[in-house]
Amino acid sequence: MGFSANVISTPNKQVSTPVNLPNSIELSKAEVEFLLTLIKNSTFSGNMIELVYDLAYKLQEYHIKINQ
After folding, report:
1. How far is residue 63's CA from residue 68's CA, in Å, rounded to a whole number?
2. Fewer Cβ in 10 A, N or C end of the chain?
3. What is the pTM of this model?
């Protein structure tokens, strides 16, 4: 796993680097189950509930898809 920066700062100038993100990702069954368990065992504040719900829903749908 690597880290990348959007902006690289030098002493006198700032250089932006393009970010290339894949359109989709592949997760293993174990990775999806880990993320769902992590969500299940976590506490979220009110302003995060909709985002967490949507994420959990997508993960559950993906889990169903890879188990067929």
Report:
1. 9
2. N
3. 0.63
Domain containing 26: what range?
20-66
Q: Which two tokens stand for residue 53?
A: 């719900």
Query: How much helix, strand and coil, in percent to the nearest 5, is found in the chain?
Result: 50, 10, 45
Interval 4-54: pLDDT, tens: 556 555 666 665 666 676 678 889 999 999 999 999 999 999 999 999 999
Number of structural domains (the chain) is 1
36 lies in some domain = yes
- 11 occurs within a structural domain: no
